[in-house]
Backbone:
């Protein structure tokens, strides 16, 4: 049985590679037609998908999954419609493939063009919501990449039904066979087989908890783009608009605390702490936020708070909890963020241009904000139309990762018989 | 002892991370001054470096290394001058750091800028020539990156002397401590320690044979940019200028056969094979090239040749050996190259615009040439001024890898109090 899984996964890799060669030949128009046909098919298959999903939901309840987990799993007509609308939205975006990134002439007459091309075959490993099957596959397809998907075992039936529907709908409009494949096994070893298959896979993207990402990083032979935690900071500078600072902090912490761009640690300049902390303390308490405060801020807040430990500075709560620390100045703030943060998204609130520029230069994070809530660290908010995730890596893709980041490039050189011998 | 090495390498990583934060603060002017000071110091230290090099050369001879290997190792006044000139050349190049890659406004008034920043800390593992110590370190420095270098054990004394000289010369002009570090141990375990140190290293670049690259790929937790083989092809299309085709093939095979962009396999369209092969056969024989021919080309060549085996299609000879195959048409040529090639550099010689475009679209290689020798697949020839190598990867850097490819980016977002709550 074990060998069988490995063989099947490898065969999927081989098939995906063949599909990717055909995919790179498709025009933007052809790909958009395929996408629209996939959206239509998904709506047609609504009942079949919901039937498959019922099996997953029943199993989840039987296995005692939390109601939040069951809710994430659950598909209904309107969620499937949302998936289909997502596909139409991707069809409407402009295609980066074929874009000329650079174009120049060399003294010897050669013309060099750098053009965007698909990456090839992308493995996507995800855990929770079955809609990732559709979201990830269509972004890859739009950019001419073949995908091998590996979802969580809780949603295996839903994922298989969605992938089948997408592939079928796509094929009717010319999608190459095996462009979108979902691994039908739930065994953990599948992740290892995928991660070792660098003869077929050009990239692997793990979307999920730290455990999954860590497992993929330690096994993968091909490039991995990681989507790790967001331990996001907001630093309130001495020279700031206090009303704006309060709005930004409350928004970044409470508007949606369960996401990676939510605020986790608030740093406040000593010189403004006495004015700012009592006000923000009240704002946060009113929103039900639990506060973990260092000694100095605890006194100034004037409300009940838990003492912050060192562990708090490196914790992504994803919940209505906020750690607060008073810092002597902007330099201490910058050092704290670069040391304890996760290089995801960090913000300074200030009216000082000098301090804003210093902060933006020195903070080593994917996105650095000046007077904007960190909740805007998001592909949609950037205007990318869709995103596959937010990369915490520095190579290839950093921050919100959208269509452009799902491409590679090649150089095309045109000449008239140039040789090195002639030049020498 | 073993623990000592691990601790020392980790301490180097920690120090490099600190250095990298200071490096990212330097202006282009400061970095250029540092580079020029390094070049001056290198010339001053000529005798010291040659003395250290003598130890390596003596050991190499004692250990019975081939004379080619000893020659690669050997440093003299003029080779050190060449290194110093290389540094001056890098100083004269424009600095990609700080470049605004993109700049746009969102409907909510946010301004988003994507700017180039240093990657951080780069590990470089190399095998042969001691000049790589200087070449790699200065390219990384120019782009604001700290480096940890690990050279081959044959050149350890030379490498240490060069690294010390660069660091010392640099520090005089303001280079942060530990910006350029060379691992002083020759034990193999060092590579593993480096490859596992993803808390400090953002990227690792192995430069050397397949064995070294393979070892790094299987151990590394951080991104690796691989510089694998170049199994380069030239395809002679039916509709081509035969004189140009002969020049290009002879150049690509014989002008410098030991490099990765040299030609290894010649594919010839059946319809032109009878005219072309007898001529190129004579050209190649005159240059001392050994030919491995498939059955059809063997007959047409009209000269002595070795029968080609399947192994020949996947071999990088790096020598005066060429495999030759007759293909029925351009489609067979494309399939052969995508199947057996190494996706490095491939060329079509044709007068047909349609065939050239088809070939350039379909060939999945870093650089695709039309009527130009593959020997031009090179950072210098591209006009990049210098290169750290030629990447055979598709992520982050593909093909000639120069200054731009040694950078990452971040997003800087400026606003006036934007929050998600206000927008909702």
Residues:
């Amino acid at each position: 049985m074990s060998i069988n899984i490995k063989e099947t996964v490898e065969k999927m890799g081989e098939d995906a590679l063949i599909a990717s060669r055909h995919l790179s030949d498709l025009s933007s128009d052809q790909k958009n037609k395929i996408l629209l046909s996939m959206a239509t098919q998904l709506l047609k298959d609504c009942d079949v998908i919901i039937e498959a999903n019922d099996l997953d939901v029943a199993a989840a309840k039987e296995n005692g999954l939390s109601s939040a987990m069951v809710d994430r799993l659950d598909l209904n007509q309107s969620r499937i419609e949302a998936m289909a609308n997502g596909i139409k939205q991707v069809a409407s975006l402009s295609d980066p493939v074929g874009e000329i990134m650079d174009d120049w002439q060399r003294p010897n007459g050669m013309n060099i063009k750098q053009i965007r091309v698909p990456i090839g075959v992308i493995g996507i490993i995800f855990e929770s919501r079955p809609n990732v099957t559709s979201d990830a596959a269509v972004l890859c397809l739009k950019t001419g990449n073949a995908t091998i998907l590996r979802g969580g075992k809780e949603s295996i039936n839903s994922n298989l039904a969605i992938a089948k529907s997408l592939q079928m709908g796509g094929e009717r409009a010319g999608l190459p066979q095996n462009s979108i494949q979902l691994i039908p096994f739930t065994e953990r070893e599948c992740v290892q087989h995928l991660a070792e298959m660098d003869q077929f896979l050009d990239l692997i993207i793990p979307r999920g908890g730290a455990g999954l990402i860590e497992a993929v990083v330690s096994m993968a032979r091909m490039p991995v783009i990681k989507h790790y935690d967001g331990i996001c900071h907001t630093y309130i500078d001495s020279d700031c608009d206090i009303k704006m600072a309060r709005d930004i902090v409350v928004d970044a912490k409470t508007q949606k605390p369960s996401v990676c761009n939510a605020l986790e640690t608030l740093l406040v300049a000593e010189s403004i702490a006495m004015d700012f902390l009592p006000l923000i303390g009240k704002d946060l308490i009113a929103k039900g936020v639990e506060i973990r405060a260092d000694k100095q801020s605890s006194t100034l807040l004037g409300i009940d708070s838990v003492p912050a430990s060192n562990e708090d500075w490196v914790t992504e709560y994803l919940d209505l909890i906020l750690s607060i620390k008073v810092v002597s100045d902007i330099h201490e703030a910058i050092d704290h963020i670069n040391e304890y943060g996760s290089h995801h998204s960090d913000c300074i609130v200030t009216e000082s241009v000098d301090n804003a520029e210093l902060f933006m230069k020195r903070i080593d994070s994917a996105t650095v904000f000046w007077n904007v809530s960190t909740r805007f660290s998001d592909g949609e908010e950037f205007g990318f139309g869709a995103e596959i995730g937010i990369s915490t890596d520095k190579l290839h893709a950093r921050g919100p990762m959208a269509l452009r980041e799902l491409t590679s490039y090649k150089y095309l050189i045109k000449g008239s018989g140039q040789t090195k011998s002639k030049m020498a």
